[in-house]
Amino acid sequence: MSDVEVSVVLPAYNEEATIERTVEVTLETLASFLPAGAFEVIVAEDGCDDRTPEIATRLAEEDDRVRHIHSDRRLGRGGALEYAFERAGGETLVYFDTDLATDMKHLEELVETVRSGEYDVATGSRWMPENQAERPAKRAVSSRGYNTLVRLFLRSDMQDHQCGFKAISRETFDALRSEVEDEHWFWDTEVLVLSQRRGYRVKEFPVDWEPKGDTKVDLVRDVFGMGSQILRTWWQLSVSPRISRRVSMAAGSILVMLALIVAVSVVFNLETVFDAMSGADPALVTAAGVVYLVSWPLRGLRYRDILDRLGFSGDTWFLTGAIFISQTGNLVFPARLGDGVRAYVVKARRDVPYPSGFASLAIERVFDLLAITVLGGTVLVGLVLTGGTEQIAEAIAAEIPPVTIGGETIDAGAAARTALRVAAGVGAAAVLGVLAILASARMESDYVHRVVTAVSNDSYANYVSGVIEQFVGDVQAVVSDRGAFARVGLGSLVIWVVDVATALVVFAAFPDIALTPALVATAFFAVSVGNLAKVLPLSPGGIGLYEGAFTLIVFGLTNVAAPVAFAISIVDHVVKNAVTILGGLVSMGWLNVSLTTAVEESREASEVEAAAVTED
């Protein structure tokens, strides 16, 4: 076989009905343009449980141009290809799908493009204008979407990354194989992306293609899997090379410090409220920060109770530090990505599985929303009972003067009313969410499994449904347990009372403001609605939504002027964010955790965990 120039690999998994015909057609086509002895056809049999191994062995015995490479266990499509390429004899490595969906008239162009030395990689394409490809609508939509994501995130110039009709030179394959991590359907996409990134010559040409039989792509396994692989490859190629542990720690620290500086600079650029703020007592503003700091070990204690109910142990101070880090991440990263950092920290340091880690976060959020809703609702009921309905309506309709920031005018009234609507929706959703969780606890335990497996019969579907069921079960374990519900619920109320107490100290820091019972009640309502409003990640840290709702309520329900109410809301929010950021920096140093590194390592750890479960 030393004269072999071209090795064609046929990845085969349970192909007893088609493999013999595929080998015959392949041999005939190769013989039509290559010299005798210059090619081989390898059946890369991937742990089949049908008659494919027997057929492949017989074909190899009958024709010395055919080889059978067997694997005792399932390697996956990419793993089988790589395993066979490593053992192939040719300098030009080719593969295509055994269903012969791509018209074999294109095989000569595929082979000669690389064999000639003109290109390092060649791939057929079903999405170029010149080709003819019949794709069912369901396949077409998913394929278009997938290729668009690859081009967008991975900066690929290819139109079709998954056409099973490719060739690569031995030199290029040897150079790239250690970098390619996927072992299944994403393997060839990763090869194409890396080839372009490393400067290899890649040719994409149109092919005629017709689907044969049902696709082996599984909706749950492969959509979830390939989506995560796109993100994994993006991180490795675009982000990871630019950071090290030392760099990421420094970057994380700089980011949070910048967030603090920006927050403070915004305060002092608000010319319309500067006069009100300049009169605030610095000592009382500092005292407000100390009061707010008290709430953090209470958060750690509550989180310990939640994890304990889920069967995991953790000391209060460690968990307090983990919460500091995650909340700092939520101020730095968009869409509450800091929550993932906390899930990683408790996974890495306390062996809490990711489903339980995220479930514990969900439980915490549910009780936070309930506590805030109870506090705000109690004040609202009190106002209604004392004849304050008209006053509430006036507050909602109140005209708050526009605020000028950096030369631009902001309609604070409109923003405030938007925040009120968001708060009302979030509060209602919190109550309905708890009711739904309690109701689901009485449903059949396998309803999630039945829903997921209805769209997939792959083993990975069992893994996905298992993760969801564990998540739902963990939430139910706390919410449906009366003792745990009472402890966590009471702890949540105390935490948010301290949050309101912080705002009251800020109120006291401003001159000419007396802490009357009416103002205290208003502060409870303002802080509650403000925090409900900022639950949705519409702005970093809820900046703007919190201040808008807070200002509208204080201005509408008290005699505090709008600029002063706005100034109080800003100082209150800055004090709380400053404590959060400083606590996060201290905790990152104490626990030796970097925000950016934690994001990267959480991704790697979850991939290893998923792979282990899938292999089982």
TrEMBL record:
GO terms for molecular function: glycosyltransferase activity. Gene3D superfamilies: Spore Coat Polysaccharide Biosynthesis Protein SpsA, Chain A. Residues 7-175 form the Glycosyltransferase 2-like domain. Belongs to the glycosyltransferase 2 family. PANTHER family: DOLICHYL-PHOSPHATE BETA-D-MANNOSYLTRANSFERASE, GLYCOSYL TRANSFERASE. GO terms for biological process: protein N-linked glycosylation. Pfam families: Glycos_transf_2, LPG_synthase_TM. Keywords: Cell membrane, Glycosyltransferase, Membrane, Transferase, Transmembrane, Transmembrane helix. This is Flippase-like domain-containing protein. It comes from Halosimplex rubrum. It comes from the Archaea. It is found in: Cell membrane. GO terms for cellular component: plasma membrane. SUPFAM superfamilies: Nucleotide-diphospho-sugar transferases. The chain crosses the membrane at residues 247-270, 282-301, 366-385, 422-441, 488-508, 514-533, 545-568. InterPro entries: DPG_synthase, Glyco_trans_2-like, L-PG_synthase/AglD, Nucleotide-diphossugar_trans. It is a multi-pass membrane protein. The keyword Transport does not apply. Its main location: membrane.
